[in-house]
Amino acid sequence: MLEREIFFYTDGKLERIPRPLPEESLVALRVNGQDWVSFYCTPQHLRELALGFLYFEGVINGLEDVVVVRVCEDLKVVE
User: Fold this and answer.
1) Which of 1, 28, 62, 67 is the most buried (most CB within 10 A)?
2) pLDDT in tens, 37-46
3) Nearest to 54 by CA among 28, 35, 31
4) What is the pLDDT of residues 51-70, one digit of tens each?
């Protein structure tokens, strides 16, 4: 994981503190075996991301419309 120094000011003192940078990767969303959309995102909570996207796009009305959600081991595809 990449780190970046940030400046942190507290109690009248300025400090440099190394902090990890969030990692993003390209994740593809497939619906019924067809590529639907790709996201650049942190590869966490991918099921929730996919379901939320499909819900707000009007593709699904709720969880009752979903049979299965699968996240590939490499975190590059959600089906």
Assistant:
1) 28
2) 999 999 899 9
3) 31
4) 999 999 999 999 999 999 99
